[in-house]
Amino acid sequence: MTIAIVLVTHESAAVIGSCLAALAGIGNLEVQLVDNASTDATVAIARRWGPRVTVLDRNRGFAAAANTGARLAGADHLCFLNPDCVLTIEAVSAARTAWRARPDAVLVPDFRQCGTLVAGRQPGYSRAKLLADLLEMRAALPRVRARLLRRPAYHDHRWHWPLGACVFVPRPVFDAIGGFDERYFLYMEDCALGAAIHAAGGEVVSLPVVLEHIGNGSSAISAERRLMLLESARLQWAAVHYGRPTAWAFGALLGALACARR
User: Fold this and answer.
1) What are all long-range contacts of 150-154, with beta carbons under 8 Å and residues at least 24 apart?
2) What are phi and psi of 232, to 5 degrees?
3) CATH number where 53 lies
4) What's the predicted TM-score (pTM) here?
């Protein structure tokens, strides 16, 4: 069972070498790297390790680049891997074993980020959870956020999504849901993947392995830019799933909070 590793890079020179070195030690993998117009040494470093490298003319975002990598891959089993995540032979073996028992399952390991264990299989989003996350980003209205966290329906346990640092997806499942939703430039595309899998009757399954993940290390972009992209993605989620009036209301609240802090 050959697995195609799809890597999306953008200004990833600091981490891509270690990531590809780990893949070289596993073997029997197809590696497709799609670069989102990096201006650093990402592409030069990547080419030393021998994956197929596709360089896009501009930064098209994670979802679009990941879909490009999936189209280029020849294998029937895909693994979308962040360049700041180190894949292991144990994780690949666990995925192959799980697929033999459940060929249509979407698989995700757990992650260790800065010494903290983070579950790869995450519960679904609700309006309360989305708003709480937006408030946390702004470090605003802590009492309101605390109330949201206590709501019984804070997590939507009817569905789960895979933390996108490393997710194994059978190609038939990926193709059936249309791949990653390209309305999301960066962030929340893994949540959208989980929602689409659930809508299609599929399931996200945990693998009994833990991978090292730097977290926010895939791309050397500023903290301000990262915050803006994450906030934009969450507002896009609100527009897609709860309607544009909800997204507008959330955005107006964030704008008012920003003005109040000046």
Assistant:
1) 151/126, 153/126, 153/128, 154/126, 154/128, 154/129
2) -60, -40
3) 3.90.550.10
4) 0.93
Residue pLDDT, tens place only, 2-47: 999 999 999 999 999 999 999 999 988 999 999 999 999 999 999 9
Residue of 200, 210, 128 lying closest to 163 (CA atoms)? 210
| In a shared domain, residues 129 and 147 | yes
Same-domain status, 105 and 129: no
Residue among 115, 102, 216, 224 nearest 163 (CA): 216
d(CA 217, CA 114): 11
pLDDT tens readout for residues 138-186: 777 888 888 888 888 899 999 999 999 999 999 999 999 999 999 999 9
Q: What is the residue range of 53's domain? A: 3-120+163-219
- Render pLDDT for 194-215 as a digit per residue (tens, 0 to 9): 999 999 999 999 999 999 998 7
Instruction: For 188-239, list the strands marked E by DSSP.
Output: 204-213
pLDDT in tens, 43-66: 999 999 989 999 999 999 999 999
Task: Tell whether 148 and 70 lie within a shared domain.
Answer: no
Which of 203, 219, 235 is a domain's end point? 219
CA distance 209 to 8: 23
Strands of the chain (E only): list them.
3-9, 29-35, 52-55, 77-81, 85-86, 106-113, 116-118, 121-124, 156-162, 166-170, 204-213
> What's the one-letter identity of residue 249?
A
Task: Provide the number of structural domains found in the chain.
Answer: 2
Question: Does one domain contain both 35 and 50?
Answer: yes
108 within 8 A of 167, measured Cβ to Cβ: yes
Same domain, 139 and 56: no
Average pLDDT over residues 233-243: 96
